[in-house]
Amino acid sequence: MIQEIKLREVCVIGVAMTRFGKYSELWVEDFGREACRAAIHDSGVRREEIQIAYCSHSFQGRVTGQRILKDLGLTGIPVINVENACAGGGDFIS
Question: Is residue 59 a contact partner of residue 83, using CB atoms and an 8 Å limit?
Fold first, then answer.
């Protein structure tokens, strides 16, 4: 028996990125905070309106998204972490 999957519409309303380069003095959390702050600002939503977060990274260990969001005071929401380097964004869109 084939199980029917019910999809719901979602929207990406805020985006941001950090500048490529070598930054030996910074940690992944520093880059994540910068991108998150900019994406939240770009979206125009209040923090309490955010329902879920997605984090793509490469070789950064477990709960990377949770570590970044904790530093921003964004806790208590689901966080999906994908370790897929540069292809991570495509994973989330597909």
Answer: yes
Distances (CA, A) of 70 to 30, 32, 49, 58, 87: 12, 11, 16, 19, 25
What token pair was written down for 16?
A: 């941001």
Phi first, then psi: what are they for 53, rounded to 5°? -130, 145
Inter-helix orientation angle 28-43/64-71, to 10°: 70
Least confident stretch, 5-9, 26-30, 57-61: 57-61
Q: Which two tokens stand for residue 35?
A: 């991108």
Segment 33-90, tens digit of pLDDT: 999 999 999 999 998 898 888 887 776 778 888 999 998 889 999 998 888 777 766 7
CB 83 within 8 A of CB 60: yes
Just list the catalytic residues.
Answer: 86
Domain borders along the chain are 28-93
